[in-house]
Amino acid sequence: MAPNHLPASFQLFCTTAFFLILLHLHHCSAFGQNYHDALRKSILFFEGQRSGKLPPDQRVRWRRDSGLHDGASAEVDLTGGYYDAGDNVKFGFPMAFTTTLLSWSVIDFGKNMGGGELGNAIKAVKWGTDYLLKATAHDGVVYVQVGDPLSDHNCWERPEDMDTLRTAYRIDANNPGSDVAGETAAALAAASIVFRSRDPAYSRLLLNRAVKVFEFADRHRGAYSSSLHYAVCPFYCDNNGYQDELLWGAAWLHKASRRRVYREYIVRNEVVLRAGDTINEFGWDNKHAGINVLLSKEVLMGRAADLKSFQINADEFICSVLPGFSHTQVQYSPGGLIFKAGGSNMQHVTSLSFLLLAYSNYLSHANHAVPCGETSASPALLKRLAKRQVDYILGDNPLRMSYMVGYGPRYPQRIHHRGSSLPSVQAHPTRIGCKAGSRYYLSPNPNPNLLVGAVVGGPNISDAFPDSRPYFQESEPTTYINAPLVGLLAYFSAHS
């Protein structure tokens, strides 16, 4: 649990006050948020993160082709995919998680997106899966990263100008990585559901590949942080272990394939893989809360009594994050924002809020509420808390600023993002070298290129936000902040 930075009495006052606010929240934001506009922009952000040969319908026009020789050093094609944040490395672990959560957003909330934005969301999923298919094209091998992070982080240059090492890092039987492989299997399986009726052949390809990658992850168990420590730590070092990704991958394969073997795997390995651990954590490194919520749908629909323990864990997750309940394990800022220590806090806000919303829908369909001690939490209460977090992101907060670039009258101007902060190729055709970009990094001027839809790491526990590139934990956007937000915005755009 995050360290307590505020006096206990003040924490209790803020928590109690916030809970009372929740009980009286109306269905529309006090500030009249335009959720559909925010949805459109949240999906557009992914086009600004694209690597590889950009398509003719690319809408973020200040970006150009980049990383066109990725994989060449290993004699494989690893072009495409996403830069995960403000740097130019392609980290496969957060990219796979991003793809899983984009897929889950489409699966649960695609019907709320409207035709145009649904199409754009599906393109965002496919840009991720096309790359993951390349990364898993050879049996027994998964390419999990392109780019040397030390040399990349030593430069401030546009992706179009990259001259740093584009080393391709892989896991295999001798260098296992069940965590990143399990997440990759989950992403491929989840995406196969997205394309099941839209492109059956592509859906089958994704599902078949997910099966192979999961078998590899399970057969050769180990953490990729051990195999590739020098390349992935401290950037995306898996501190939580690989066990949760194996259950997560199996859960998505069960949902995508309906094969009993995966359900049996989950039941058989539930204790071994510690399914009940850290119930209020969910993100690229920790899947426990996500596993419990995902599997609970089966239980609540009366189809999987043998998975009942996951629904119990999901209920405990809800009680652990709700303000005002006796066992709350999550901090809230005075302004009402979920806060967890460790940097890039908005990743926790959007991921946990997505689970609140998804679970509230599952509960509603089952006419079920969550027992929390002497009281209970209704599906409507979960929705209100999720909506409160979304509204905070969009501007309903003490600073009255949106944390989504390009949304609202006031938003971050100096985000920690190389492409956004450096002049575009169109504006500055000549190359900007590794160290030549430093003056743009240190400049007090706003970024010249608007990365529309990017949601930054966000304010601290006191609701304060330094709009400054060097404060990367607050000012850097990531794909895995936006991916669950897509589903949240889709729902509220249709239900507000």
UniProtKB/TrEMBL annotation:
Organism: Penstemon smallii
Primary enzyme class: hydrolase
InterPro entries: 6-hairpin_glycosidase_sf, 6hp_glycosidase-like_sf, Glyco_hydro_9, Glyco_hydro_9_Asp/Glu_AS, Glyco_hydro_9_His_AS
Chemical reaction(s) catalysed: Endohydrolysis of (1->4)-beta-D-glucosidic linkages in cellulose, lichenin and cereal beta-D-glucans
Lineage: Eukaryota, Viridiplantae, Streptophyta, Embryophyta, Tracheophyta
UniProt KW keywords: Carbohydrate metabolism, Cellulose degradation, Glycosidase, Hydrolase, Polysaccharide degradation, Signal
Protein name: Endoglucanase
Any GO BP annotation: cellulose catabolic process
Family of this protein: Belongs to the glycosyl hydrolase 9 (cellulase E) family.
EC code: 3.2.1.4
Leader sequence residues: 1-30
One Pfam family, short name: Glyco_hydro_9
UniProt key word Isomerase: no
Catalytic residue list: 416, 467, 476
UniProt KW Ligase keyword: no
